[in-house]
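Notebook entry, structure prediction.
Reason for the run: the old model in the group folder had no record of what sequence produced it. Starting over properly, with the input documented here first.
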Amino acid sequence: MTGRTIIIDGYNLMQRVKGFGRALDDSLESARRALIGTVGRYLARKRLFDKTVIVFDGARNMGEFKNFKVGAVSVVFSAFRESADDRIISLIKKAAPPVRVAVVSDDNYVTNNARAHGADIISCADFMALAGGGKDRVCHEADDKKLDDDTMASINDSLKKAWRIK
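New structure, fully documented this time:
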């Protein structure tokens, strides 16, 4: 079986989703915890990925944050003078075939580079729809593009076929 990895552009997803905006009003830490919890619950239900990494920009924190793991979710902060975008691209490059990588981001730099290195792209809106985000969690720019149940099933089926999951 080939490995399946999902890499999530943490702050990009948090900023695109209304539900995390409320958590951001409390604190950045509470928004990160909310995102990690949402991803963890999704993984527990779907089990589509062998490895999950959420990458946050830690460059401005001068090494203040340490990488850690919550259940099956690895949380990674970029190093000082390294952007989260560059850390994501580095992780994609390090994933050796036959590992399949999917990247969750709406950032053009991330998605274009990820696609160039053979990664699959999942938009923030599509990921939140798959993760079971309610109407209050739909991405700001995608309000008119909500996924219905048939579309979500189709996306899941396509991922399963692409990654040869039974």
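Summary: The domain at 4-162 is CATH 3.40.50 (Rossmann fold).
The old model has been moved to the deprecated folder.
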